[in-house]
Amino acid sequence: MRVLIIDGQGGGIGKALTERVRARLPEAEVWAVGANAIATSAMLKAGAQQAATGENAVRVACRDADVIAGPIGIVLADAMMGEITPAMAAAVASAPVRKVLVPVQKCSAYVAGTRQTPLIALVEDAVNAIALESQN
Asked: Rounded to whole angstroms, how far apart are CA atoms 113 and 91?
């Protein structure tokens, strides 16, 4: 199973997802794509087996993923202070695979129904969803 993790800014959520997916699903192939080099580096240091940076890397990697994970901003054009381009958001949103989105209350978006949950709990929930997907 190939898990594609996408993040931007400092890559903190992507780093946490990468570490926990690698620990929980050691057989999974983890690919990381950062909207910038700092985010990519953080995910690579966390254990991603493949990593790349930028819009075209997101578009290409989305074609080959079994699951895509990251903060909710990866499906919102111009999120993360403009790091997520419309083409990146469209590639993620239109990929015919399960998306596991961490519902952080940033990127000029409010996700109704979510509570003020610690980020680590959101990441753990996301990893649980990825693990369930790997069983299908």
From this structure: 26
The DSSP call for residue 73 is G
pLDDT single digits (tens) 100-127: 999 887 666 777 877 778 889 999 999 9
Under a CB-based contact definition with an 8 Å cutoff, are residues 95 and 62 in contact?
yes
Q: Indicate the DSSP class of residue 71.
A: E
Look at 28-32, 76-80, 93-97, 132-136 and tell me which has the smallest mean pLDDT.
132-136
The CATH number for 114's domain is: 3.40.50.1220
Tell me the mean pLDDT in the region 27-33: 97
Instruction: Give the tokens for residue 87.
Output: 């083409």
CA 104 to chain centroid, in Å, comes to: 12
Which run of H or E residues covers position 30?
strand 29-34
22 SS3 class? helix
For residue 45, give its domain range: 2-134
Would you put residue 9 in left (φ > 0), alpha (ψ -120 to 50) or beta?
Answer: left
Distances (CA, A) of 119 to 37, 74, 81, 115: 23, 17, 20, 11
Number of domains observed in the structure of the chain = 1
